[in-house]
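Weekly sync, protein design subgroup
Attendees: M.S., D.O., the rotation student, P.L. (late)

Item 1: inverse folding check
M.S. brought a backbone from last month's batch and wanted to see whether the design step gives back something sensible before we order anything. D.O. pointed out we never logged the input encoding, so this time it goes straight into the notes. Structure tokens as presented (279 positions):
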């Protein structure tokens, strides 16, 4: 005669404990997933939104300041010493696509700029304060206008959506290399579309005293983050020596990370000064 099986209380308790464990594990996974999603949204959306807003506001503030007749220019010695996120002309390229290989031509004299170099150099002698926004970088092809600040500290400059000036490199219009870094992803990502630049594209740098026009000349698509040669006075890659220059000139260098969403490599865009217009 058939009799129903007997389920012991110990078996029931084990089954209940197993169900609770599975349910608790599922809750933990869902919670972790939501937190990760919020972090991604914060990094990819909120930091961009906030940094772009702040950068646009700073550009407008600089333009208002420059528009005031007789307003003193806030300049002085660098403050705060070296920042852990700062770079220099002798160090690595901490931020920096498409490449034009080095040809036979050197930097030489920049066409159209010879008559204005003395004035350009004089107007750029003062060193801005550390993390001070003092210029506006414009790249028409990228529809970009972004503040330039002294230093490449992440917290004080780059994460604000600004472009940072490498300490130890030249200022706009000076002989040598005016070298800049900017984020490619997150925090305003001003150099998000830097690989779209092509030879002949225009780069402008506006200060209180003048507007400097550079023209893209060569592009290094990928190099090591420690390739400090790209921001030297005569820029030339130490990792890929076929990219760069051999003669002194008036250069601008834009650096950022590559490829997207990584900091494994750097890219560099070089331009030559072609004109300077006093304000």
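Designed sequence read out in the meeting:
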């Amino acid at each position: 005669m058939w009799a129903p099986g007997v389920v012991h209380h110990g078996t029931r308790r084990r089954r209940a404990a197993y169900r609770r464990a599975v349910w608790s594990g599922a809750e933990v996974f869902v919670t972790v997933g939501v937190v990760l999603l919020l972090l991604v949204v914060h990094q990819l959306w909120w930091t961009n939104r906030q940094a772009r807003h702040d950068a646009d506001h700073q550009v407008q503030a600089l333009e208002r300041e420059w528009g005031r007749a007789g307003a003193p220019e806030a300049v002085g010695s660098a403050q705060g010493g070296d920042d852990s996120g700062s770079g220099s002309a002798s160090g690595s390229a901490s931020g920096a696509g498409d490449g034009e290989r080095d040809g036979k031509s050197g930097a030489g004299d920049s066409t159209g700029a010879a008559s204005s170099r003395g004035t350009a150099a004089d107007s750029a002698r003062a060193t801005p304060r550390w993390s001070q926004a003092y210029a506006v970088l414009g790249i028409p092809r990228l529809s970009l206008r972004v503040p330039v600040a002294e230093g490449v500290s992440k917290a004080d400059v780059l994460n604000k959506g600004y472009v940072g000036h490498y300490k130890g490199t030249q200022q706009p219009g000076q002989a040598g290399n005016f070298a800049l870094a900017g984020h490619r992803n997150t925090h305003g990502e001003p150099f998000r579309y830097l690989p779209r630049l092509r030879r002949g594209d225009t780069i402008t740098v506006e200060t209180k005293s003048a507007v400097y026009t550079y023209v893209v000349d060569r592009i290094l698509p990928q190099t090591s983050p420690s390739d400090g040669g790209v921001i030297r006075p005569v820029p030339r890659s130490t990792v890929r020596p076929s990219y760069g220059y051999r003669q002194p000139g008036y250069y601008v260098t834009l650096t950022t990370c590559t490829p997207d969403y990584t900091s494994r490599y750097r890219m560099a865009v070089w331009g030559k000064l072609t004109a300077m217009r006093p304000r």
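Discussion: The domain at 88-278 is CATH 2.40.260.10 (Sortase; Chain: A;). The chain has two helices and eight strands.
Action: P.L. to compare against the previous round before Friday.
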